[in-house]
CDP-diacylglycerol--serine O-phosphatidyltransferase
Amino acid sequence: MRFTKSIPNMFTLGNLYCGFLSIGYAANGQYKNAAILILIGMMLDSMDGRLARMLKADSALGKELDSLADIVTFGVAPSFLIYYTYFYQFGLLGLLVAGLFPLFGAYRLARFNISSPKSSLNYFIGVPITAAGGILALITLFGELVPNIITTVLFTALCFLMVSKVRIPSLKDVPLPKYGTIITIFLGCALYMVYRGTYGTFPYLIYIATPLYIAYLAYLFVKRKK
């Protein structure tokens, strides 16, 4: 029973480790691999909360751990990725600007953690850091197709949208698993990696995570139908 209660936290720690690995890959110049690791972190992040509810393992520790993992995987890692792929050319100024992203993200997470549970049933206040970090990862993954001005505008917009008062639908009432659409994006990215011929240098984690996540989504969908 005690092991069962710790399963959601293991997924959260896996999310955090993906963020750490993403920073390492970005520092070594393997930017597409770093972006894919952030997307894998999104998959794990979408699973830990649901597993906690399924196993009745919700806890204050899990909530705090989730926030700490999110700030690394979807705050620090994407900001390093954007710096190494684009902002590096501006020197110290580029590093300072890239560092703003996790600051806005940390503020957004702190505000979310102290908000009333009822206020987040149907909508989020501001763009979730998970979505913002995922968007930056996708921009990097398809960097050669995205003009630099678009990257700058999106980076700036996401920073302010995270701490804005804009209400973002949570999609919890939609009869699909939370973040279910991410699998479509993820598979597209995986196919893109294969097409570009970089799959040989990417950790085999990508080939393990994808089928497991598909099976997880299928299970949730069938369960909800019943």
Notes: The domain at 2-225 is CATH 1.20.120 (Four Helix Bundle (Hemerythrin (Met), subunit A)). Confidence is low (pLDDT under 50) at residues 173-181.
